[in-house]
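Researcher: Sequence of VOC domain-containing protein follows. Predict its structure.
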Amino acid sequence: MKLNHLTLLVEDVAGTRDFLQKYFDMKGMGKPTDHMSFLTDDQGMVMGLFKSEGAQYPEGFHIGFIQPTAEKVNEIHQRMLADGLQADAPRKLHGSWTFYYRCPGGFLVEVLH
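Model: Prediction complete. Tokens:
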């Protein structure tokens, strides 16, 4: 079985789209607007981003991007810091080398190996 698509409600569609494209190589699909945007990954999974004022996610909700190496996790973290983002340092957690960051869409993103 393969995950086909996921829709997330976000306050900042453009900021979320740009974040996911810049740090996780997601590719845009179609013509984005400030109200909706579609992205795809290298496995063909589609992520829809829809504008929703006041969107809130439950405690612990997050999406994860598995990296091939701990070094790649560190590289993404360093790129975020260089861009002025405040992300906690990667650490060993639940058997993974990982860090979390609350993206412009308001949900947590986990970067892990």
